[in-house]
């Protein structure tokens, strides 16, 4: 399946509203403090009992950054003290010692991702200790089958790109994701991220020289001072490097939530029409250069594993974005990390001090979580198909969950009919399909099936980024 998209500016303007990103359903605001360590242990045991030795995916959150990027909404700690990374690694290994015994040692770890923050804040020794500790606690898959990735900031490597990439390869990493956002110097100054083309391309080359099988580049449209002409130069510079995947995120200006964003002059931000022009430009440039649209903000080359997974119906979406590992339980380590174990979600304390205090006391550092009920699982399946395929196979949902789709989702189908009249979806007896124009508004379509949004009073609504 090769998703076809078309750019309808009028339709996008009408439906540009705050929407969840649906990296999970239910989304994180529905997690609650009633889900604690006892519940996590019970769901880990339940997961171990599932047939077929369900594989594992590990996520490690490294919150440290050497300087603040003003656009950022991630959970991070600003410091130049590299020794904090060494101490944090000790704490991570202590958390691993608490969590790993909950899982059958025969279960294979096929995916590992280090995110942040800036994971390369960790020096080589700390990273070696971390991967070594994970390897002793879990059964890491062999080199041919593993999918080990790390987010990299070319500005703050602990050593030169070539030896650092070689060290990553020796530790088993074979994927890298680099933040760029924009190469234009004016935009970089406005968001406090000065990053040269040369250091970025040098790190890409170093990773490729070490046999990394995938490189991802992150870009952002809607930043202060961006213009179509200068953003086009960034796009073409990035495409010339031929990364396997490119993510083009829309900037979400939420200064009440993210303190660093208060440093951005709102008057310098592109208005709604200008932001749409930037999105149109990115879609046209990437499509003309052979990149396939995966969904949401993601594009990939035709031979990339994400494209193949989408074509074969195996694409999934989780807190790390799109993934090919549909059958894994996800275990998160570090401050704010989220786990998805069996039919449950759980999240660690966001604040570094609270997370560390729990680990120091030998407690699982849980902040909140959620046990999914039947309705949650059903709606998660529907929303997952929409976000990954751009369509819902009604027959498969009915068969897997034992429901009459039309009877169960009568109110939702009425909402979808409104979107169908607007040209976002096509409704047939056996399928709900996003139109080429509607594929850019998958979040809006998925919202029709979100029971929690409908139940939440407007006064208590959780802020979300806008659809465009």
Topology overview:
Blueprint: H1 9-14, H2 37-48, E1 56-62, E2 64-65, E3 77-78, H3 83-99, E4 108-116, H4 124-137, E5 139-140, E6 147-152, H5 161-170, E7 175-181, H6 185-191, H7 197-209, E8 214-221, H8 228-240, E9 245-250, H9 272-288, E10 292-295, E11 298-300, H10 305-312, E12 316-318, E13 321-323, E14 329-333, E15 338-341, E16 344-348, H11 352-360, E17 366-371, H12 374-389, E18 391-393, H13 394-401, H14 405-408, H15 410-422, E19 425-427, E20 431-434, H16 442-447, H17 451-455
Parallel strand pairs: 1-4, 1-14, 2-3, 4-5, 4-6, 6-7, 7-8, 8-9
Antiparallel strand pairs: 9-11, 10-11, 12-13, 15-16, 16-17, 18-20, 19-20
Helix pairs in contact: 3-4, 5-7, 8-9
Give the overall silhouette: globular
Please report the first level of CATH classification, the CATH class of the largest domain. Alpha Beta
Unreliable spans are none
Helices, by number, come to 17
Helix content: 25-40%
CATH architect. name of the largest domain: Alpha-Beta Horseshoe
CATH homologous superfamily classification of the largest domain: tm_1862 like domain
Radius of gyration: 22 Å
Count of distinct strands: 20
CATH topology tier name of the largest domain: pyruvate-formate lyase- activating enzyme
| Spatial separation of the terminal alpha carbons | 24 Å
Mean pLDDT: 93
Tally the structural domains. Answer: 2
Q: Structural class of the helix and strand makeup? A: alpha/beta
């Amino acid at each position: 399946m090769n998703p076809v998209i078309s750019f309808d500016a009028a339709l996008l303007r009408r439906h540009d509203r705050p929407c969840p990103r649906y990296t999970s359903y239910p989304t994180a605001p529905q997690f609650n403090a009633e889900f604690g360590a006892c519940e996590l242990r019970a769901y880990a045991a339940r997961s171990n009992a599932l047939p077929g030795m369900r594989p594992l995916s590990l996520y490690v959150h490294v919150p440290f950054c050497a300087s603040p990027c003003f656009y950022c909404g991630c959970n991070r700690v600003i410091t130049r003290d590299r020794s904090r990374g060494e101490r944090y690694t000790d704490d991570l290994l202590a958390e691993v010692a608490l969590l790993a015994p909950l899982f059958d040692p025969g279960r294979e770890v096929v995916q590992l991702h280090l995110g942040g923050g800036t994971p390369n804040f960790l020096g080589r020794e700390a990273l070696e200790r971390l991967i070594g500790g994970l390897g002793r606690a879990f059964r890491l898959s062999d080199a041919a089958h593993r999918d080990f990735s790390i987010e990299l900031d070319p500005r703050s490597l602990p050593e030169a790109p070539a030896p650092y990439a070689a060290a990553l390869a020796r530790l088993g990493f074979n994927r890298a994701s680099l933040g760029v956002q924009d190469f234009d110097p004016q935009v970089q100054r406005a968001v406090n991220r000065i990053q040269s083309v040369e250091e970025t391309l040098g790190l890409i080359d170093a990773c490729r020289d070490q046999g990394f099988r995938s490189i991802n580049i992150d870009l952002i449209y809607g930043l202060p001072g961006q213009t179509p002409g200068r953003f086009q130069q960034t796009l073409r510079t990035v495409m010339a490097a031929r990364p396997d995947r490119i993510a083009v995120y829309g900037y979400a200006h939420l200064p009440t939530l993210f303190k660093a964003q208060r440093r951005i002059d709102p008057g310098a931000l592109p208005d709604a029409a200008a932001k749409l022009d930037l999105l149109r430009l990115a879609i046209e440039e990437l499509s003309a250069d052979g990149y396939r649209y995966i969904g949401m903000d993601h594009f990939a080359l035709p031979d990339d594993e994400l494209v193949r997974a989408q074509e074969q119906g195996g694409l999934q979406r989780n807190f790390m974005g799109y993934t090919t590992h549909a059958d894994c339980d996800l275990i998160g380590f570090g401050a704010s990390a989220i786990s998805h174990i069996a039919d449950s979600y759980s999240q660690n304390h966001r604040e570094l001090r609270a997370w560390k205090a729990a680990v120091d006391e030998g407690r699982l550092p849980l902040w909140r979580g959620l046990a999914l009920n039947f309705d949650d699982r059903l709606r998660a399946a529907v929303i997952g198909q929409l976000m990954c395929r751009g369509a819902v196979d009604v027959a498969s949902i009915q068969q897997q969950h034992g429901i009459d789709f039309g009877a169960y989702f009568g109110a939702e189908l009425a909402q979808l009919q409104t979107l169908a009249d607007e040209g976002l979806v096509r409704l047939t007896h056996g399928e709900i399909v996003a139109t080429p124009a509607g594929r850019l508004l998958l979040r809006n379509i998925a919202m029709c099936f979100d029971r929690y949004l409908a139940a939440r009073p407007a006064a208590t609504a959780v802020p979300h980024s806008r659809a465009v």
